[in-house]
């Protein structure tokens, strides 16, 4: 028999956004400076409450991206990252957030709006190193968004979207290094890339390298899913690099 005295607890719903891009060969995340309490003046991921009971969650995510950073989500593929509802994560009450992720090239400069005092692209390393902090539990959300993005370029050809129409394997390697967060051995990377059928299409040695032979040019191949995947090597430890 159901408990006749039970009442649903008051729970509010928000959306948060992890938007990633490459700028100057470094992975950046979109952040806003909060203009209201709680955490006024702190950096946070863009997001906010759903507008009303009729607003779809993904529509709320697109709206918040437009309102807080003046970015058009229509050009982005937003995918649901996870749900975050730990009690105490927000001092305003029991608030559950549905986080979304997008990673795309060529995103414009953001403009702050609504309750954001500022909006900017910030190097991910600023937060992962601990030099800057994020409000609420947004560091956890960012970390899980980064892991999802790193896995995506293991299993899909997404990394080629951050290159020009034609590119060298060295330029593609820089994309993987920026997203994965560590340097790769060029010979091993070249061997892995060449072992994935349909990942790249060779065009010929049309670009002169600084020294030596011309660098061979490629373009993105026909395959979106990589088989075998470009699995991350274990990064060297500090002891190994000293």
Automatic annotation (TrEMBL):
It comes from the Bacteria. Residues 10-146 form the Nudix hydrolase domain. Keywords: Hydrolase. One of its GO terms (molecular function) is 8-oxo-7,8-dihydrodeoxyguanosine triphosphate pyrophosphatase activity. Its EC number is 3.6.1.55. InterPro entries: NUDIX_hydrolase-like_dom_sf, NUDIX_hydrolase_dom, WH-like_DNA-bd_sf, WH_DNA-bd_sf, WHD_NrtR. It is an enzyme of class 3 (hydrolase). Coiled coil: none annotated. SUPFAM superfamilies: Nudix, Winged helix' DNA-binding domain. This is 8-oxo-dGTP diphosphatase. The lineage of its organism: Bacteria, Bacillati, Actinomycetota, Actinomycetes, Streptosporangiales.
């Amino acid at each position: 028999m159901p408990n006749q005295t039970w009442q649903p607890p008051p729970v509010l719903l928000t959306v948060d956004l992890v938007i990633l891009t490459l700028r100057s060969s470094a992975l950046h995340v979109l952040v806003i400076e909060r203009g209201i309490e709680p955490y006024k003046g702190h950096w946070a991921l863009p997001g906010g409450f759903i507008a009303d009971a009729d607003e779809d969650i993904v529509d709320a995510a697109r709206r918040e991206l437009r309102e807080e950073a003046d970015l058009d989500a229509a050009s982005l593929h937003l995918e649901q990252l996870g749900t975050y509802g730990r009690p105490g994560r927000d001092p305003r009450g029991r608030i559950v957030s549905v986080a979304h992720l997008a990673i795309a090239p060529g995103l414009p400069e953001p403009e702050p709006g609504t309750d954001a005092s500022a909006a900017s692209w910030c190097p991910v390393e600023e937060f992962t190193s601990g030099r800057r902090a994020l409000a609420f539990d947004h560091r956890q959300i960012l970390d899980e968004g980064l892991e999802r993005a790193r896995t995506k370029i293991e299993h899909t050809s997404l990394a080629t979207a951050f290159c020009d129409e034609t590119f060298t394997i060295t330029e593609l390697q820089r994309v993987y290094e920026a997203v994965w967060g560590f340097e790769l051995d060029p010979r091993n990377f070249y061997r892995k890339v060449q072992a994935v059928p349909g990942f790249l299409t060779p065009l010929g040695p049309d670009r002169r390298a600084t020294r030596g032979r011309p660098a061979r040019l490629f373009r993105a191949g026909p395959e979106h899913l990589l088989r075998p995947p470009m699995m991350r090597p274990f990064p060297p430890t500090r002891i190994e690099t000293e």
